[in-house]
Amino acid sequence: MAEAHQAVAFQFTVTPEGIDLQLSHQALTEIYLSGVRSWKKKIIRLKNSVITGVYPASPSSWLFVVIAILATMYTRSDPSMGLIAKIQEHLPVSQSMSTQCQALVSAVLFSTMLWLLLIFTMRLCLKQLLSYHRWMFEQHGKMSNTTKVWVALVRIFSGRKPLLYSYQGSLPNLPLPPIKDTVKRYLESVRPLMDDTEYERMNNLAAEFESSLGNRLQWYLKLKALWAANYVSDWWEEYVYLRGRSPLMVNSNYYGMDFLYVTPTPIQAARAGNSIYAFFLYRRKLNKEEIKPSRIPGIGIPLCAAQCERIFNTTRTPGEETGKETDIASLKNTALILTLELTACSHNSAGRSVDSCQVLKLKLLLIPWAKARTKYFSSGVNKRSLDCIEKAAFFVTLDDDEQGMMGDDPAASLDCYAKSLLHGKCYDRWFDKSFSVVYFKNGKNGINAEHSWADAPVLSHLWEYTLATDCFQLGYNAEGHCKGEVDSSLPRPQKLNWEIPPECEEQISQSLAVAQALADDVDFHVFAFRDFGKGKVKRCRVSPDAFIQIALQLAYFRSRRTFCLTYESSMTRLFREGRTETVRSCSNESSAFVRALEGGEAAEVCRRLFRAASEKHQNLYRMAMTGAGIDRHLFCLYVVSKYLGVESLFLKEVLAEPWRLSTSQTPIQQMELFDMVNHPEYVSCGGGFGPVADDGYGVSYSILGENVINFHISCKHSCPDTDAHKFGALIRKALHDLMQLLSPNHKEPNKTEESRPEVKKDL
């Protein structure tokens, strides 16, 4: 009963003398402090709304305008050109208001209107400035005079000390490309993948579409582009993510890794305590909008921050046709779920222990989750327990396995580490949460993220902050425990109870079998390429991303003797509510280079073709970033055709083409948090994702500092034509061959040294 007494603010009993109140001072204090915190948050939100609403001006600038107008009036000049007098004429006549007072009120009203007009003008100017993208297409290191003037104007109109969402109202809308340009670029992108007969057929389909149905569909998209902030993002989220019917595990969710060579503490609970606290520090900064807006490095152009709104307290909830994102960011109290693989679960009415009830902390999406949720989890104790999870800030798993680079085969242990973060045991993650954090028995950790609410760079920003705060700010004592004293007054964790009937237990068991088969089919290979990095690549005057992408094309051609449709993710956050666009990395130029290199052409010829392929890739990437991509436009045209109930053979075939090589780069966004020179081991190993096509590869890479490139490669065991480890070896070989071509003095590494990974002792 002691816990029950502490759970209420006061207790009372009815006695012959009347009602006897026994007040709890501690409880009343907590209620008071809770109210204070709530009002502080409201005040902060109100203040931030005002600051963001008038940005790039500041609230104090209003006072400056008012004083300036009043000062000019006292010099017997009229800066309003008669408008103040007009306002004074229409003021309500009040006998208690003198003529001078009316003039003062009119001047203040005019000053306020002038101030708002200035803000509107500055925002409009900034929006127009941010619509300029020619700077991106200029040669590196050679900035035109026009761009120099543009940079100066952007800095003038960008204001000072922006909050996280200060630039949202000034970002331009995503432009809608002309349909003829998109079709032309599409045909160019598929030319290296088709023979003459196939290409001629596709060319005819495209011409027919462009001249007939395409113009009609484009008209509807123009209306949406005029009306909506972004003509792509809402449909992309709904139809690509929320209406997807395949399991999130492996197919959609992605993961991020801990430090590769360093484990700050071997104590699982201590690592969890520090980093969970760091997560909440980030959330506090997020709520106060104190996080600096993300910008393009070097040039300082702001990026859209809309995806940051749903980092915490967000859950994907299923429906029969489409899921939805439930955002509960306004919650005052946050539940944090710590899941252990427990067998002490609920009992059914017969008193029999439900052994598979642990599958409830689990990947329920793999059962017909929408129907099961309605039938078994919409009321009673199950609903209360499910609400605790879905309303939590995020999900935490305390895993009883050890992971990381360790043991006699550190390379294989990295592969197991990746698979554990991607799917775990299929029942010890909650894949519907915006993100789940996993803490392993030996102190390693990692993160698994649901994809519909945001893209990887948004979560990566949070992950970098958490890793840096955990190790460099909070730290651990000599024994590896968290610093500070234990607060014994903190409440103990509460167990969530579930009531699982036999028919639900059967569905869970069937779902687990499906999930296990999916997880077992994933082949993963993770390795750190340390022979050279972006430093040496840039000395060859080549874009590191283009270098890697061409190496991937070379590796794939060597594995299959053909080319494939290649997906590289590019962000469109230069625009309001922008998400991603596709860079079709397999181009005529890259395929021509690969064929020449494999055909034994002269080195000079191959170098010339490589330069052309690199420039082409950079141009494709820039076009994707500036709204001139191919795939999002075609996707939206297809959605419109479905709404209109019309069929397009051209669009149907375009969207049915498999991406056998799906790639993505994970950039380090906050380099100031890490010391890559003195402590290169203190940086995340990056992250990865599952294969997009059953007979293809998923390749994620992160460029760390000047000398390291980490690769995460996935495919499926069930496909006889794919092998993650063999493809990794081909990537290594391709990287060395390209460097040998561009830098003839480059020496091949000793094979023994190359096969022996560098392992540093965990701290």
UniProtKB/TrEMBL annotation:
List all membrane-crossing ranges. 50-74, 103-126
Q: Name one GO biological process term.
A: fatty acid beta-oxidation
Q: Any idea which UniProt keywords this protein has?
A: Acyltransferase, Fatty acid metabolism, Lipid metabolism, Membrane, Transferase, Transmembrane, Transmembrane helix
* Compositionally biased region (Basic and acidic residues): 745-763
Record-linked Gene3D superfamilies: 6.10.250.1760, Chloramphenicol acetyltransferase-like domain, Choline/Carnitine o-acyltransferase, domain 2
Where do the catalytic residues lie? 451 (proton acceptor)
UniProt-annotated stretches for the region Disordered: 742-763
Broad class of where this protein is predominantly found? membrane
Gene Ontology terms, cellular component aspect? membrane; mitochondrion
Locations listed in the record: Membrane
Specify whether Transmembrane helix is a keyword of the entry: yes
Q: Ranges for the Carnitine O-palmitoyltransferase N-terminal domain?
A: 1-47
Q: Where is the Choline/carnitine acyltransferase domain?
A: 174-323, 369-732
Q: Which GO terms describe its molecular function?
A: carnitine O-palmitoyltransferase activity
A Pfam family matched by this chain, by name? CPT_N
Q: How does it sit in the membrane?
A: Multi-pass membrane protein
Instruction: Name the family the entry cites.
Output: Belongs to the carnitine/choline acetyltransferase family.
State what protein this is by name.
Answer: Carnitine O-palmitoyltransferase
- Organism, by scientific name, is Dicentrarchus labrax
Identify the coding gene.
LOC127373241
